[in-house]
Specification:
This protein has 118 residues and is mainly α. Among the domains are: 32 residues; 47 residues, no CATH class. A two-stranded antiparallel sheet has the order 1-2. It is elongated and about 90 Å long. The termini are far apart.
């Protein structure tokens, strides 16, 4: 190999390395987590005084989901912050509350399909 061939290999290797670095940097920038909203403090707690009355909903691409009128779809703050009711407590220690089963659904009787066999 001549000196020119070595130089060509070195230049191609450096360019390939730079290309790989720029691709990995671009991909990692796209995968970076979004910034927290202004009502979330740095320690992760929520400042309810800064929280809007309606929270916009975003899709998997990070873009807002629009309603049929073309406006961003929002969820009321109260709907997000309301806790579900607690489960019923047993009356006696160790006793479980009764389980209520829904009515059984009866399936329509099946009529067999008869085929002529060859």
């Amino acid at each position: 190999m001549t000196g020119r061939s070595h130089l060509r290999i070195v230049v191609i290797s450096v360019l390939a390395g730079l290309l790989a670095f720029s691709i990995s940097h671009t991909v990692s920038a796209r995968l970076a987590p979004p910034l927290p909203p202004p009502w979330v403090n740095p320690n992760g707690t929520v400042d309810f005084s800064k929280m809007p009355a309606c929270i916009p909903v975003v899709g998997r691409t990070g873009q807002p989901i629009l309603n049929s009128k073309g406006q961003p779809y929002c969820v009321p703050r109260e709907q997000l912050l309301t806790l579900p009711p607690p489960p019923p407590q047993p009356k006696v220690h160790g006793e479980r509350p009764p389980v209520v089963l829904e009515e059984a659904v009866q399936a329509a009787p099946q009529t067999p399909i008869l085929h002529d066999l060859p």
